[in-house]
Design brief:
Layout (H helix, E strand, L loop, with lengths): L1 E3 L5 H11 L4 H9 L5 E7 L2 E11 L11 E9 L8 H15 L5 E2 L7 H9 L16
Parallel strand pairs: 4-5
Antiparallel strand pairs: 1-2, 2-3, 3-4
């Protein structure tokens, strides 16, 4: 069963977020407080939250897309003992429906270049790689 995140679920959701984004979780929480990401959903098995998906609508340019807005998977996580049971695929199917209901005709996501497990997952559930980008910065 997939449900919208409620105030009662914040702690279990936050624990899963830390597991997914250990280095950048503070940034994600800050962006959520600013109202950027308010579309979090939990996957429940026998009254236990075992997975989540965080969705957004992006109206800025999204690499490889042709339309706007685009449904965007900001994060998807399944607790280790519940993996390989089709839960993440069900969450992606949910994301497709959610995005279509919001007027989108495309769904996008991303993965860090070193996160080969995420890349394999994205390919397995039907995403096609749009590009590979290396970002650069310089202090001035």
């Amino acid at each position: 069963m997939i449900i919208s995140l409620s105030e009662d679920d914040l702690q279990v959701w936050a624990q899963m977020c830390v597991s997914l984004w250990s280095e950048t979780v503070e940034l994600f929480f800050d962006e959520r407080k600013q109202g950027k990401f308010q579309n979090e959903f939990l996957y429940i098995v026998e009254d236990e939250a075992v997975a989540f998906i965080s969705l957004s609508l992006r109206s800025d340019y999204v690499e490889g897309t042709k339309t706007s807005p685009v449904g965007y998977i900001e994060g998807i996580y399944v607790k280790p003992k519940f993996r390989n049971q089709g839960i993440a695929k069900k969450l992606v199917e949910f994301a497709k429906i959610w995005s279509a209901e919001k007027g989108c005709s495309e769904l996008a996501s991303d993965a860090e270049i070193e996160n080969t497990d995420s890349q394999k997952f994205h390919n397995k559930v039907g995403f096609k790689e749009a590009s590979t980008i290396v970002h650069f910065t310089m202090e001035i």
